[in-house]
Each structure stands twice: as C-alpha cells, then as structure tokens.
Amino acid sequence: MRNRTLSILLCSAALLLSGVLQVWGQADKPAYTPPKTAWGDPDIQGQWPTVTMIPLQKRLPGQAGGKGGGKGKGATKQQGPQRPADVNNAPPTTQAALVVDPPDGRIPALTAEGAKRRAEARDGKGIPAEWREEADAPEDMNLYYRCITRGVLGSILASSYNNGNQILQTPGYVVIRHEMIHETRIIPLDGRPHVDNKIRMYMGDSRGHWEGNTLVVVTKNMTDKTSVGSNGAGYNGEGGIHSDALTLTERFTRTAADTLQYEATLDDPKTWSKPWKIAFPMTADPEYRMEEYACHEGNYAMENILTGHRLEEEKGVTKK
Amino acid sequence: MSKSLFAAVAFAGLLLTLPLLAHHAFEAEFDGDKPVKLEGKVVKMEWINPHTWLHLEVKGADGKTETWMIEGGSPNIMIRRGFTKASLEKGTDLLIEGFRARNGRTMASGRSITFKDGTRLFTGGSADARQAK
Fold it and tell me: Is there a cis peptide before residue A269, judged by omega within 30 degrees of 0?
C-alpha cells in the first residue's frame, strides 16, 4: 500500500514536471507571424475548407450519445457532425465542443422572448427546417433547403459536403467566399459605418478591421430568418435560429502557415440569455477547388413535395 | 406517363417518404424502390455543385437511344472517391447503378459508376446516403 502511494506521488510529480516543461517550451517558441500582403496587411488568403468534426455543443449528462465522441477517462460521448466527404481529414484535437464560452460547452438558455418566438413560429408548427413530410408552401422549408442561404455561421460551420471557404484580400477589403450556396462576403476595412438599421440582409452587413494580426469582422443588420446550424437542423433538432438583434463578431488569426484560428461571438439579447462564443481551427488546403454552384438546375424536390401535398389535400389526407 | 398516373405515383411515393439530412431529400426526388442499371456512353459531364450531373446516352432494347441525367455527389466528393476530370469524358462507356426519379423523367440518382475495365466507384451522392440508412 505504501509502495502504491509512493508510486502515485512519483507519477504525479513527473506529470507536473512534464507539464511545466511543456508550458516553458511553448513560451520559448516565438508566436507565428503571418506574411504580409504587398500593401502591408497580414496575409490570410487562400483555401480554408472547414474540416473540423468537433460537435457544436457538449452532451448533457445522461443525454443519448450520437456519432463520434472520445474514449478514455473523462471523455464524453458527443453529438457529432457527419464526417465531411469532400475535404481532407481534420487535424487531431482535444477540443470537445465548438462552444468554448460558456466553458461548459453549452449554448446559453433561451430568453423568454426567444423561446416564445420559437414556440409560436408558423402557428406553432415550429421554425422551418428541412422537409419533414409536411409542407403547405415553400416557406415551410428553411432557406437552405430552398437554395437561398445558410446565413453567415451556417456557411462556415462544417457540413457533410461543400465545405470550401476562400479568402481573398485587396487594399481596403477582405472577401470571403463559401462554396455552399456560393455566398460571397465583401467586407470593407476602411472604418465606414454600418448601413441604416432598417436595411436587413440574410448575410448581414459586415465591417472589418485589424487588431494586430487578427482580422475582426463585426456583422449587424441581419434578419430573424437565418440560423446557426449549417442546414437548419443545426443542433437540438431545430434550426438554432437567431433574431434580427444579433451582433456577430468574428476573429480570424493565422496561427501557423496552414492554420487559421476562427472565433465567433454571438450577442443576441432577444434570443440567448448571454453572449456565447464558438472557436475552431481552419486548415489550409491549397489544392481545394470550388466549382460553380447550381442549386436549382435538375432539382425537382420542391415541385415533387408540393405536388404530393396538393394531392394529399385533394384526397383529404391532411386537414388543410 | 399520363398526368394522373404521375400524380398517383408521386402521391404513393410521398406517403412512404423519409426525410434525409441532405440538401434536398433523396426521397423527394428519387424512388428507392426503382433501381436502374444504365449502360451507355457519356454525352456530357457537368462538374457542378451541389451535385454533379452526368448525361448518358443509353440504347434501349428497341434500338432507340435515350439521354439520361444522372445525379452524383459534389465535384470534391467524387474527386476524393477516385474520379478525375479526365475519367468521365465524352464517349466513355459506363454502367451506372442508381435509382430513378419520381417525376418519370429519364433522370436518376447514381450510386455507382463502373468503367469498362471493371473499376467501380461510388458517386457519393444522395443514393449513397440512402443506402447507408
């Protein structure tokens, strides 16, 4: 027994020492300095497909686990996203959830207003998601299903495919392209004010500035129709929809030649009880190519779905 | 197909549907109970997002040719499964296995493509996801 105690003590001391040495080693390593563009801005250009498989939230104790998850002591089974089929493998990570603040890895509680809005959406049928065998009109399916948009966060979070993101810089502007829905965000860096509060856009109105080597992008003027999750089924089986009061602050920092650390803080007092933050690393893939996006061509899903529902009405299958 | 027959087929199909976590549900467009095997020559390959479209000229038993449109995965998915931009050039002989479109058109969701040398590759399209269910 004494021997066991001694060996535990020795092991702990060794672990502590190795931890100290590791931190020491990190402190000695100079921080990565990204190259500069010809006009002197930090250069973050390139193809940065989202390859992460980190789940959005940590699982609650007792909650049924989904795909993915870790092994070993302390590992929690996660509600994992699908393995993206069109990108390289994600680098290994110990990060348990995209939500890094609050530190419990969970999205903060909905405000009373936020909960009410969700409960009352579409006369109690809920916020439009994917087609779930009921659709009276196109508006019963979310904006992504209708080839319109995935919103800002939906465009950058991992999906099962079409995960490409490309960053281009010119003097005074940063351009971020997303493969799915071929969104392009043109972000001025000259300090101009946001557009009038009355002007509302699915992708919002973005303004950027540099804080050292970090590109900070603040987006306002959004609608209450886009969601956090990439396909309207983002988490908890519903859309993760925010309100038009959302201020989104994104931070892009190149921490290595092939790594762009992404952070996004969501401040939406109409929806969540406090601001929350997600973070994940994006990995460079110079070989990645984005092809033309043609969502409607050859896509007869909406026509078929609505034809089916009109037939159901004729035959009295549904109440409507 | 007559309009009423098409309507009846669509109706029957939609009553038996299952939603899928994909851009558009496989079940809303294609019929998992109507597998097809199509042998023919590539007319055109469209490397476009979110789904590629392969146009295939197929000769029927009556000697008449029909052009089929085959939906595959996204270009990047197919390239990671082994396709190259040169592998589906005009005139290439292929055998495609997949599922027919519900709307009665000569369209299908392609699950796999077999080349003349026997190489068989999955397209990574919505038919793959359906099969995995």
Answer: no
Contacts of A231 in chain B (CB under 8 A): 21, 23
Beta carbons of A305 and B47 less than 8 Å apart: no
The structural domain count of chain B equals 1
The domains of chain A are located at 32-59+98-320
Nearest residue to A96 via CA among A75, A82, A65, A81: A75
Q: How many CB atoms lie within 10 A of CB B106?
A: 15
Could you report the predicted ipTM of this complex, rounded to two decimals? 0.76
Confidence of residue B24 (pLDDT cuts 50, 70, 90): low
Sign of CA dihedral B131, B84, B116, B49: positive
CATH number at residue B78: 2.40.50.140
Q: What is the pLDDT of residues A266-314, one digit of tens each?
A: 999 999 999 999 999 999 999 999 999 999 988 888 999 999 899 989 9
Instruction: Give the largest CA-CA distance in chain B.
Output: 43
What are A161-190's pLDDT values in tens digits? 889 999 999 999 999 999 999 999 999 999
In A, minimum Cα distance to B27 occurs at: A301
